[in-house]
């Protein structure tokens, strides 16, 4: 029998540090909700806005798959592996923290804010050699289509991770309807609405709402507004995934 969980945008944790305005779908930093620790292997989904010229100082991570999806602006990255990069809308960044890395993130612009999603997943293999990768995708390929941006396979479209997970982004015309078939029977779907209004399996969702679905083999997505944008995260529900 299909199971679902709904996380309305206004129910998320919120921290405003002046230079950083962050909403947390799951428990993070000073926001702790025992009922919002994770969805399967999905541990963190932060919706961040960083002021011009500001950012996160150098800090450590280990044994986590970390994905950044820029929505607006330019985010500058430095890490202990010697990588320096700028990521922008259309880019996808991934870090496998593995045995341990240090990195920093800063808004490259001094005049405009940068907006991005920061996502953490538990890996299915611990203590791997840390790695960094980023790619640029054609955002036009997600018009009325779910464009794959992440998978477990280095040869597939998008970045790859140490997890049996697939992420896709779609941008839809009003009244466009499509089905998405879940890649693995052990997986569920966590949908995050970046913009607009959609209906997923009968549940109406607005901007920044999150909706988890599991114990099903596919979902139906209908756009209720023009240019609705949705991120689908197809992920193991078992923490050992």
What's the structural blueprint in terms of helices and strands?
Blueprint: E1 3-7, E2 13-16, E3 20-24, E4 42-50, E5 55-61, E6 65-72, E7 75-79, E8 84-87, E9 91-96, E10 101-107, E11 114-121, E12 131-136, E13 146-151, E14 159-160, E15 166-172, E16 177-181, E17 187-195, E18 198-200, E19 203-205, E20 210-214, E21 218-223, E22 228-236
How would you characterize the overall build of this protein?
The chain is mainly β. The protein folds into two domains: 13-136, Jelly Rolls (Sandwich); 139-236, Jelly Rolls. Helices cover 0% and strands 54% of the residues. It has no helices and 22 strands. The chain has strands spanning 3-7, 13-16, 20-24, 42-50, 55-61, 65-72, 75-79, 84-87, 91-96, 101-107, 114-121, 131-136, 146-151, 159-160, 166-172, 177-181, 187-195, 198-200, 203-205, 210-214, 218-223, 228-236. It has a seven-stranded mixed beta sheet with strand order 1-20-17-22-15-13-14, with no helix packed on it. A hairpin with a 4-residue loop joins strand 7 and strand 8 (84-87). It is globular, with a radius of gyration of 17 Å. The model has no long low-confidence stretch (mean pLDDT 95).
């Amino acid at each position: 029998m299909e199971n679902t969980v709904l996380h309305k945008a206004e129910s998320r944790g919120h921290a405003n540090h002046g230079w950083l305005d962050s909403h947390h779908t799951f428990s993070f930093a000073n926001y702790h909700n025992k009922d919002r620790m994770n969805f399967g292997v999905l541990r963190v989904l932060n919706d961040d806005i960083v002021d011009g010229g500001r950012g996160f100082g150098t800090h450590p991570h280990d044994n986590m798959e970390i994905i950044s999806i820029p929505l607006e602006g330019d985010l500058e990255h430095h890490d202990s592996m010697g990588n320096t990069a700028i990521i922008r809308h259309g880019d996808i960044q991934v870090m496998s923290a593995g045995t341990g890395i240090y990195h920093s993130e800063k808004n490259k612009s001094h005049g405009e804010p940068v907006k991005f999603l920061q996502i953490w997943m538990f890996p299915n293999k611990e203590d791997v050699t840390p790695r960094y990768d980023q790619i640029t995708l054609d955002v036009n390929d997600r018009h009325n289509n779910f464009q794959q941006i992440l998978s477990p396979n280095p040869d597939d479209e998008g970045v790859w991770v140490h997890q049996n997970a697939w992420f896709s982004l779609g941008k839809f015309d009003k009244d466009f309807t499509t089905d998405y078939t879940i890649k693995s029977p052990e997986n569920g779907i966590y949908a995050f609405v970046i913009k607009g209004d959609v209906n997923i399996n009968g549940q109406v969702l607005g901007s920044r709402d999150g909706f988890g679905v599991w114990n099903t083999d596919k979902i139906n997505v209908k756009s209720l507004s023009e240019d609705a944008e949705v991120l689908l995260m197809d992920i193991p529900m078992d923490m050992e995934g």
